[in-house]
Input
Amino acid sequence: MGEVWIDAGSAAGAGALAGWLRRDPSVARAGVEIEPAGSAPAGEPGSAAGMGTVETVTVIVDGAVGVLSLLVAVAAWRRPRATPPPVVRVIENDGTVLEGTVEDVLRTVRARGEREQTST
Output
């Protein structure tokens, strides 16, 4: 699928989110690689989208199942917190970019999967 950038709103939020994702078994099974907060090179999409690299968690995801697992885990991380929804940017291998709140992107990815299942 590609790269996913998640703006957690602060360096502390990025650290907490990265830790949460590393402990989530469904994310681990999906083969997700989590880059440490602040690892995005200058000029990368995280910067271009206005996401500060210190607040951003970068995730390398292989396949739609990995993206779904990741987005569900991010939504679960956010639920008990009184924080604004994180901005998520999914950059697919073909260059397609999905961006919005985790809930919006999750709906889009799920709808796409349902369309693909009904067309086969």
Observations:
- Strands lie at 2-7, 33-35, 56-61, 87-92, 97-101.
- Residues 40-51 have pLDDT under 50 and may be disordered.
- The two ends are 20 Å apart (CA to CA).
